[in-house]
Write a structure and sequence with these properties.
This protein is α/β, with parallel strands linked by helices. The chain is built from eight helices and 19 strands. The two termini are 33 Å apart.
């Protein structure tokens, strides 16, 4: 069994950023990663200083190469099935067993998409969630905004800086009088019918089909997904989850500590909004705080 100071579960922006802090502190750290990153559907990452337009996988590979250049850092490619034990003696079982004094969870979130035929094939290309990530490339075109459980009023206002041809697909969700008044503006149309399909060519959306058989033409579509942890490892360890209108994530403090001693969490797994930059930042914080915890320097509650 490999023995390390810290095991980092997840090898994308948050996990690699955490690991490099520990490697620079000359601690033995291993990243355990199965390669199924949340951003694998996107061809480019935007808004990340020095990396704007680079492919997420290219950024990840570069980061991994940098951290693995440190002699105390390692990588296990595979899945973690179970974590047991306590601070000072965690055991991670899976592709390879690891014993670690501390654990950083950075395996990210999973986007739960509506069960609409054709939608998943466009996800990360022309069907997206974040206009800051994708809006510039999808600007100035007929754009749809899909309601799932509620009317996405924030997006309805926000998207006016990317398009003046927006159609709200109410998708069977009731619109309140207050919402209707806020939606009444030039450049924003409404369709009340339920969406039953997405027509596309190789991921490039062309139209959505409504239940009455009509097609609504568009070349971009936004929606707010439900988000949940990509693994149950944290919950199985006893980490408390926080509920938000967008989904669930692990509860952490300002040091990225979860509610379980010795377990830290970083990235989208530990915050309600996805962001590559924030994922890297919280990973950096988690790595440094984890090192301080090993030294007994972190304040206790």
């Amino acid at each position: 069994m490999r023995k390390v100071d810290v095991a980092v579960v997840g090898g994308s922006f948050a996990g690699v950023s955490a690991a490099i802090m520990l490697a620079r502190a000359r601690r033995r750290v291993v990243i355990l990663d199965e390669g199924r990153t949340r951003n694998r559907f996107a061809s480019a990452s935007h808004g990340f200083l020095g990396q704007d337009g680079a492919a997420p996988q290219a950024i990840r590979r570069k980061g991994l190469a940098e951290v693995l250049a440190y002699p105390t850092a390692g990588l296990i490619e595979g899945r973690v099935e179970r974590i047991s034990g306590k601070a000072g003696a965690f055991v991670l079982e899976g592709t390879e067993s690891v014993q670690a004094a501390r654990v950083i969870l950075a395996y990210g979130q999973r986007d739960v998409l509506p069960d609409i035929p054709g939608l998943a094939e466009c996800w990360g290309r022309t069907v997206v969630q974040c206009p800051y990530c994708h809006g510039y490339e999808l600007a100035d075109r007929r754009t749809g905004l899909l309601a799932v459980e509620a009317i996405p009023m924030h997006h309805a206002t926000q998207l006016r800086d990317w398009t003046d041809d927006l159609v709200l697909l109410e998708n069977g969700v009731a619109v309140t009088p207050e919402e209707a008044a806020a939606l009444d503006r030039p450049g924003l149309a409404r369709e009340a019918g339920r969406v039953v399909g997405v027509r596309h060519t190789n991921g490039a959306i062309e139209a959505v089909e409504l239940e009455d058989g009509r097609d609504v033409m568009m070349r971009a579509l936004y929606l707010v997904t439900w988000q949940e942890p990509a693994s149950a490892l944290g919950e199985d360890l006893g980490c408390v989850l926080e509920e938000t209108p967008m989904g669930r994530h692990l509860k952490v403090d300002e040091h990225q500590r979860t509610t379980v001693p010795g377990v830290f969490a970083a990235g989208d797994l530990a915050r309600p909004y996805p962001s590559a930059t924030q994922a890297a930042a919280t990973g950096n914080t988690a790595g440094a705080a984890c090192h301080q915890d090993l030294l007994g320097l972190l304040p206790t509650d």
